[in-house]
Design goal:
CATH class: Mainly Beta
Strand order of the largest sheet: 3-4-6-2-1-15
Number of strands: 15
Largest sheet: 6 strands, antiparallel
Number of domains: 1
Distance between the termini: 55 Å
Helix content: under 10%
Radius of gyration: 17 Å
Structural class: mainly beta
CATH architecture: Beta Barrel
């Protein structure tokens, strides 16, 4: 069967994505030895810590706190681990279990895994929930960011070239600008996303899953490396696909135990 016509992104993103043939995706399946460093910070680390924005697995970082019914989740990247994978801390304490990915009901491209975004979720165990801080994102040297009641997750259409991008994957705060966006539909990548955004921010493997802020708003999931630069998928589409609500108050509308 012939493949459906591909809508080509504009020149810069096309050039970056072609480089995926010789540059590894931001995907790992085992513990990595990538150097992890935290840029200088002035804010405290809570107990239990806010994992949104910070590294929480040996190979992946956390995104944002979300909820579904009475359960609290931490977003990550869908490629960080399969559904059912149990996450523990460095000390061996349980953190949570990976849930389903943000898959598309219909996949128009045979041979591809079609996903709304590269969003994964970890259902947190009670002892790993930082009650009173669920609307916070720990940006390390960039400080804690508070998501107020009117905060909404950004979608692909909300994000434009030149927008300010901030990440703290690997507990290393960096910032830059959006340079392009388009479909993720390339032979070197087994996954299809309707939208992926490139930014001029350096990225490495353990950045995967980390929170992306665009103009200070919750915007995406660190997902790919385009010749060493950041590629992220938008947040709103993934939350909608999984029926999740972004936490925008300290207890995410729940009553702590």
């Amino acid at each position: 069967m012939d493949q459906a016509p591909v809508r080509r992104p504009r020149a810069r993103l096309r050039w970056l994505v072609v480089a995926l043939g010789v540059v590894a995706l931001v995907v790992v399946t085992s513990v990595v030895t990538t150097h992890v460093r935290e840029t200088w910070r002035t804010t405290p680390i809570h107990d239990p810590p806010v994992l949104a924005g910070r590294i929480f697995m040996a190979w992946c970082s956390g995104g944002f706190y979300v909820r579904k019914d009475d359960a609290v989740y931490l977003t990550a990247a869908g490629h960080c681990a399969p559904e059912g994978y149990e996450v523990t801390s460095r000390e061996g304490e349980p953190i949570g279990v990976f849930g389903p990915k943000a898959t598309m009901e219909r996949c128009p491209y045979p041979g591809k895994a079609c996903l709304q975004t590269d969003l994964g979720i970890v259902r947190l165990v009670p002892t790993a929930i930082p009650w009173g801080h669920l609307n916070e994102v720990d940006m390390g040297a960039g400080g804690y960011r508070i998501l107020g009641p009117d905060t909404r997750a950004l979608a692909c259409d909300d994000i434009r070239s030149g927008d300010l991008v901030e990440i703290n994957g690997r507990d290393h705060y960096r910032s830059g600008r959006v340079v392009e966006k388009g479909e993720n539909l390339y032979e070197a990548d087994p996954n299809y996303f309707p939208c992926i955004i490139a930014a001029d921010v350096r990225a490495q493997s353990t950045d995967s899953g980390g929170a992306v802020l665009v103009n200070g708003m919750p915007a995406g999931t660190i997902s790919r490396s385009f010749q060493g630069y950041l590629g992220f998928t938008p947040l709103a589409e993934g939350l909608a696909a999984l029926g999740l609500e972004l936490c925008t108050d300290p207890n995410c509308g729940l009553t702590p135990p």
